[in-house]
Design brief:
Elements lengths: L22 H11 L6 H13 L13 H12 L4 H8 L3 H4 L4 H8 L1 H14 L6 H18 L1 H16 L6 H21 L3 H15 L1 H13 L1 H21 L4 E7 L2 H11 L10 E7 L2 H14 L1 E2 L5 E2 L12 E6 L5 E8 H9 L15 H6 L1 H10 L5 H11 L4 E5 L5 E5 L4 H8 L1 H5 L1 E6 L2 E3 L11 E5 L16 H33 L4 H5 L2 H9 L5 H9 L5 H7 L4 H6 L2 H9 L13 E3 L7 E3 L11 E5 L5 E5 L3 H5 L5 E2 L1 E3 L7 E10 L4 H10 L4 E9 L4 E10 L2 H12 L4 E6 L2
Helix pairs in contact: 1-3, 2-4, 3-4, 3-9, 4-7, 4-9, 6-7, 7-8, 7-9, 8-9, 8-18, 8-19, 9-10, 9-11, 10-11, 11-12, 12-14, 20-22, 22-25, 22-26, 30-31
The protein binds manganese (II) ion (MN).
Amino acid sequence: MPGLPDPSGRPDGQPKRGTMIRISDILERVAEANSDADLDIIDRAYVYSARVHAGQLRLSGEPYLLHPLEVAFVLAQMNLDPVSVAAGLLHDVVEDTHATPDEIEAMFGSEVRHIVDGVTKMSKVTVSDSRTRQAESIRKMLLAMADDLRVILIKLADRLHNMRTLQYHKPPKRLEIATETLDIYAPIAARLGIYWMKHELEDIAFQHTEPEAYDTIKQLVARSRVEREEYVQKVMDIIRERTTDAGLQGRVLGRYKKYYSIHNKMKAQNLAFEDVYDIIGFRIILDTIPHCYEALGVIHALWKPIDIKFKDYIARPKSNMYQSLHTTVIGPGGMRIEIQIRTEEMDEVAKSGVAAHWSYKEGKSANPKVSQQFAWIQNLIENQENIRDPREFMENVRIDLFPDEVYVFTPNGDIRSLARGATPVDFAYLIHTEVGHHLAGAKINGRLVPLQTELETGDVVEIVTSPKGHPSKDWLGFVKTVKARAKIRQWIKTQEKERSLSLGREMCEKAFRKYRMSFNTVLKTPEMEKVVDEFGFKTTEDLIASIGYGKITPLQVVRRFLPKPEDLAKSDEASLIKKLIGSVRKRKTKTKTGVTVKGLDDILVRFGKCCQPVPGDPIVGYITRGSGVTIHRSDCVNALKLNADRYIDVEWSQEVAETYPVKIRVSAVDRVGLLVDVVSNISKNGANIISAWTETKDDHTVDGLFTIGVADTQHLNRILNDIRKVKRVQGVRRVK
Ligand code: MN
C-alpha cells in the first residue's frame, strides 16, 4: 500500500524482502524492547547455531542459518524475552543437526532445552492420515501451550518464515503446508491474539490453496486502488482534523483488508467484490483509555454507526487479552468503514498477543488473570487425553481455536461448544430440546445462577429441569444460539396456537349461539369448508385460531351462515331454508323459544312485539333480512302485510321451558283494594307481572294494562277467567 503506513499490527522495522537478517538487527531489537536484557545468551546461541548448521542450505539455495535468524527476528519483534529469542535461533538444531538436548542444556540452561525440546517434539508428527495428523498436531500444540507458551510462539514464527518462503517447495507440498497453516496455525495465532501473524499466514496460504481466487481479488483491489487510496486519505484527514479539534492526540492509520478476509466475506455472504464495502479499515491509536472513548464519540457524531457492529473490547477484553474499540460506520459516500480505536499499549499487545502479558518464569504467567484465561488449555488436555478418535478430538478442539466460541463441560465431563455469550438456556437446548423446554434452573460450577448468565470456557454446567418448567418469552432476549432461539419460538408459537384455538372456539360458540345456531354443527358442514377457503385458510383450525388471535372476528364468520337479503328475495322457501342452515340435519327439533321451525335446527327465532304470540296461539314464521325468523300470531295485522313468499311454517313445541309476555286490558269500577285483587289473581296462577299501568277516570272507571308472562294460551285463559271473577271487574281481554 504505497503512501500509507501499514497498520496491520505487524511490528515496525520489517526489513525489505531479500535483505538478509543479521544478528545485530536482532540484538538491537531486543535491547530496544528491554535495555536490561541479557544479550549474551542470544549471541552465544547465534554462534552455536551458525556452527552446527554450517554447510546446510535452504531450498532457496540460501544458507540454512538464515531461517533461524528470521525466526529469532520475528520473536524479537514480538518483544519476547532473550530466552525465547535464543531458543528461536536454536529451534532446528536438535532435529536437523548433530546437536543433542543435553548439549543445549549444558550450554544454554534447562529453560532453553525445554523449549527447544518442545519445538522438536511438535515437528515429529508421523501419521499417514491427514485428518489424524491434524488432530495430532493440535494435540501437541495444546500440550505445548499448557507447558510453555513460548514453544508455540516459536513454532508460529517458524511457520511464518516457512510460509514466506513457500514458493521454493514443489506445488503438492506447498498446498499441503498451506492447508495445514489455514487449519491449525492461523487459528492458533488468532486465539493467542497475534492478529498480524494470523492475517499474514492466511494471505500467503490463500495464495497457494486458491491461486485463482487470490489473483482475482488481488486484481480487483489493484484496479480500484487509486480511487480507494484517495478515499482512505480523505477519511484519515477528516479523522485527524476532528480528533485534533477535540483535543485528542494520536495516530491515525488506514489499511486494506487482507485478500483472504475479503475472499471469506464474499464467500460467506455471497457478495460480489463491489459489495464488500468495509474493505478499508482505520485505526486510531491514542494515549489513554478515556481518550479512546472520546474519539469514539467524535466518530459516532461524525458518521452514523451500525449498532450491531460495535464492540467494546476495552471494557470486555477478548480471552486472548486483546483490547480495542471496534465500530463500523457509514462513512463519506455511504461507504461502510471499520474503525478500531485503542491505546498505544493495546496496540503493542496486538503485536505479541497474549505473550505480552506473559511472564517467563517457569513458563507460567505471573498475572493470575492470564493464568486463568489459559486454564482452559489445561482443562482441555486433561479431558482429551483419553479420546482416541481423532475426529472426535478435532471436533472438540477445533471449536476452541475460534475465539467466538466457548466450551463448557456437562456434569459427566463431556465437552460442549457454544457461541460466545451463550447462556445455560442455550446449553440446555444443545443437550436436548426437552431439557430446554423443561428448564427450571441452572448451576454453573455447582452454584445456582440466573439463566442469562454468560457461560465461560471451562464452566461445568448443570441444568435443573422440572415437569412444570417451560420456556419463557424473556429467554429470547438473551439466548445466543440459533437452536435455542428456534426451539423457544416454536414452543411459544405452538402454545399460542393452542390457546388461540380454544379461545377462538369459545368465541365462535358464543357468537353462533347468539344467532341460535350451533357452531359445532356448522363446523361439520361443507359450507364451512367453503368459508375456510374464502378466508384464505387451509384448515378450519387455522380459521378458529385466527379468531383467537383477534385477526378476524367471530361475527365475520357468523355472517357467512346468515341468509343474504338478495337470496331471500329471490329464493323459494326450500332454498331459503337451505341457505339458512346449509345442510344442517333435517329434522324437527325443539328450540329454546318453544317454537319449532319446520326443517330447521338452531335458527334464531324472535317474537313479534306487535302481537306477542304465546304457545297455543296459531302462529306463522316470517324470514327476516339477516336476523332469523320472526314469529307472529297468524291473525296479526302486521304479519298479514308481509310478503307471503317469506312465510314459513312454524309450530309450538310440546314442552315449553319459558313464559311468553302477553298484554291484557282490565276494565273495572274503582273500589278500595281492586288492584290488589287483580294482581293476586294473576300471581296465584303462577304468572309474573312484567309491567302494569292503571288509570282512574273521572267517572270512577279504571283502565288497567298489564304485561304478564304466561306459558301458553290455556294458562292465559285461566288467568283471564279468574280476573273476570274479581268484584267490580267489567271486562278483561288480551290486547291484539
Ligand atoms: Mn524451522
